[in-house]
Automatic annotation (TrEMBL):
Name of the featured protein: Fbd-associated f-box protein
Domain of life of the organism encoding this protein: Eukaryota
Domain F-box, chain residue ranges per copy: 5-58
SUPFAM superfamilies: F-box domain
Organism of provenance: Thalictrum thalictroides (Rue-anemone)
Length: 433
């Protein structure tokens, strides 16, 4: 009869450290009871994960535990320190001394999700250290960022949520310089005291900006940017230069006023005319379209998705001669497709010269069955020389009479002229059944 062999304990220390890196430190400490092999493994563990889910009713216990782990751990370099707080507020003294302690151990990654009962400033040594990845999600009160963040030379990934930027100059201007930063996420950060936020990050590849309420204008210098996501009121993008590397752009703006939407969106789109994929979403349904041909064309654009914009943006489409896929989510509720103060129906001026020589797939969602939609589909079919398929999904029909109207609309589509002999039209009717 073979004796049981403890194969896990015989694994190399590096492998055991990797296994323990997925556990909370409280559970890691419990493994020290397994055998003498495990007893002191934790003192050189490069990944320290703390969560107050393990200390729901004992804040003092968790604070003492974190203190003791950091005190008695050996002096080997630390790779990651993670603190996930969901049940307790943590004072500045605790957060400050933990950050200072792990920075002294040359930590490379710090991930913190914390609740605070008041605002306080992070230690300035944080952004002058060897930290390469820093994520901070603060709740209840914004955490003040030190001025050392303005010139952090080692950060490669920075994610901030509900944090407060340092004060700018007398004009309310703040400059951030990140020479090796590749990923930047800014979510609902407090910048009401700033007028202009300028970011220099020549190696930046991915940028996500989400703003709520008043925010500073953003000026970006990142020639290697490939992905950009923006969510905010109107458009806080002030200037973005040399974006020839852009691949994907997702813009979700809150245009409430048509005139503001017209001017701001045109200015914004001109900055992204090098991108290959563009998603544009407006939070408020309106009869909004570009009245004139855009000054620049999107020669690189291959994939376009429009959300909550009415189907009258022919000028935008005619600025995208090489698109291959088009997805259009029409607004709900239906907006009145009539230009204000001009007396003409929107989209009345359509160029007869445009030909989509690369467009293969079109998806239209929330179709109402109105004349403007019929006109738009007719326009696509007439100009889509290599079009392969159009998939149309209607709004939910709330009556049998409405179902009949949509069925008649579908029949009209089949009779339209088609530039492509192989195109198929799939009409999906949402019924009350």
């Amino acid at each position: 009869m073979e004796m049981n062999i403890d194969r896990i304990s015989s694994l190399p220390e590096g492998v055991l450290h990797h296994i323990l890196s997925f556990l909370d430190m409280k559970k890691v400490m419990q493994t020290s009871l397994l055998s003498s092999r495990w007893r002191l493994l934790w003192i050189s563990l490069p990944h320290l994960n703390f969560s107050d889910q393990m200390w729901k009713h004992n804040k003092a216990g968790l604070v003492n535990f974190v203190d003791r782990v950091l005190l008695f751990r050996n002096n080997s370099d630390l790779h990651k320190f993670s603190l996930n707080s969901r049940n307790h507020y943590y004072e500045a003294d605790y957060i400050g001394r933990w950050i200072i302690s792990v920075v002294r151990k040359n930590v490379k990654e710090i991930h913190m999700q914390i609740y605070s009962d008041k605002s306080y400033e992070l230690p300035s040594c944080l952004f002058a250290s060897a930290v390469k990845v820093f994520t901070l999600k603060s709740y209840n009160y914004p955490i003040q960022l030190p001025t050392s963040i303005c010139s952090s030379s080692n950060l490669k990934t920075l994610e901030l949520m509900f944090s407060r930027f340092p004060k700018g100059n007398s004009k309310g201007e703040l400059v951030l310089s990140f020479p090796v930063l590749e990923n930047l996420i800014l979510q609902f950060c407090d910048q009401k005291h700033l007028n202009l936020l300028t970011i220099y990050a020549i190696k930046l590849k991915n940028l996500v900006v989400k703003n709520g309420g008043r925010s500073a204008k953003l000026q970006l210098h990142s020639p290697n940017l490939t992905s950009f996501d923006y969510w905010g009121g109107n458009c806080g993008i002030y200037s973005m230069t040399n974006l020839s590397s852009l691949v994907t752009v997702n813009i979700w703006v809150h245009f409430r006023d048509e005139e503001v939407a017209q001017s701001e969106s045109v200015r914004m789109l001109q900055m992204f005319n090098h991108t290959r994929s563009l998603v544009l979403k407006n939070s408020f349904p309106m009869c909004f379209f570009w009245q004139e041909q855009l000054a620049s064309t999107f020669d690189n654009l291959r994939h376009l998705k429009l959300i909550r914009l009415c189907c009258c943006n022919y000028n935008l489409l005619e600025s995208c001669p090489h698109i291959e896929t088009l997805i259009w989510e029409l607004p709900q509720p239906v907006v009145n497709c009539r230009t204000k103060g001009r007396g003409n129906e929107c989209g009345a001026q359509i160029s007869s010269e445009c030909k989509f020589l690369h467009l293969k797939s079109v998806k239209i969602q929330n179709l109402e069955g109105c004349e403007h939609e019929l006109k738009f589909i007719k326009y696509i079919l007439r100009n889509g020389a290599v079009l392969e398929n159009i998939t149309i999904t209607t709004k939910k029909a709330l009556s049998s009479e409405r179902e009949k109207e949509l069925e008649e609309f579908s029949m009209k589509l089949q009779c339209l002229f088609k530039a492509s002999s192989t195109v198929t039209i799939l009409f999906l009717l949402k019924s009350t059944a």
